[in-house]
Each structure stands twice: as structure tokens, then as C-alpha cells.
């Protein structure tokens, strides 16, 4: 997910995406803990996507005030 993709999304869409990514991250962490995760890079990608969305939410929050 790129920042350009997030630029046109509304705050509610970003929050929904964030919740989905957090659920995915939890699932991947459980797979990693049980040794079932094949692609460790997925954890890193999801973590960075979460950070991107949180950054965009912070930007939108500060611009609305």
C-alpha cells in the first residue's frame, strides 16, 4: 500500500482499513508463534502499512482542526 493510495480515502475508510490490518497482523503473529508462517516478510509489510495509515490519519486530524 502506497501513500498515494491513501490520499483519496476518507477518514472512515482509513479507520476500516486500519482495523482490517490489525486483525491481519494478529493472525500473522499467531501463525509465526506456532511456526506456521511461511513468509516472514508479511509481518514487516503489514506493520509498515499500519504505520502509513496511522500517519495519514494523524495528518487528516491535524488539518481538520
TrEMBL record:
<dbReference type="Pfam" id="PF00831">
    <property type="entry name" value="Ribosomal_L29"/>
</dbReference>
<dbReference type="InterPro" id="IPR018254">
    <property type="entry name" value="Ribosomal_uL29_CS"/>
</dbReference>
<dbReference type="InterPro" id="IPR036049">
    <property type="entry name" value="Ribosomal_uL29_sf"/>
</dbReference>
<comment type="similarity">
    <text>Belongs to the universal ribosomal protein uL29 family.</text>
</comment>
<dbReference type="GO" id="GO:0022625">
    <property type="term" value="C:cytosolic large ribosomal subunit"/>
</dbReference>
<keyword id="KW-0687">Ribonucleoprotein</keyword>
<keyword id="KW-0689">Ribosomal protein</keyword>
<protein>
    <recommendedName>
        <fullName>Large ribosomal subunit protein uL29</fullName>
    </recommendedName>
</protein>
<dbReference type="InterPro" id="IPR050063">
    <property type="entry name" value="Ribosomal_protein_uL29"/>
</dbReference>
<dbReference type="GO" id="GO:0003735">
    <property type="term" value="F:structural constituent of ribosome"/>
</dbReference>
<dbReference type="GO" id="GO:0006412">
    <property type="term" value="P:translation"/>
</dbReference>
<dbReference type="InterPro" id="IPR001854">
    <property type="entry name" value="Ribosomal_uL29"/>
</dbReference>
Amino acid at each position: 500500500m502506497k501513500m498515494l493510495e491513501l490520499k483519496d480515502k476518507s477518514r472512515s475508510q482509513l479507520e476500516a482499513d486500519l482495523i482490517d490490518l490489525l486483525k491481519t497482523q494478529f493472525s500473522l503473529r499467531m501463525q509465526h508463534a506456532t511456526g506456521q508462517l511461511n513468509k516472514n516478510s508479511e509481518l514487516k509489510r503489514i506493520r509498515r502499512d499500519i504505520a502509513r495509515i496511522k500517519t495519514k490519519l494523524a495528518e487528516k486530524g491535524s488539518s481538520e482542526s
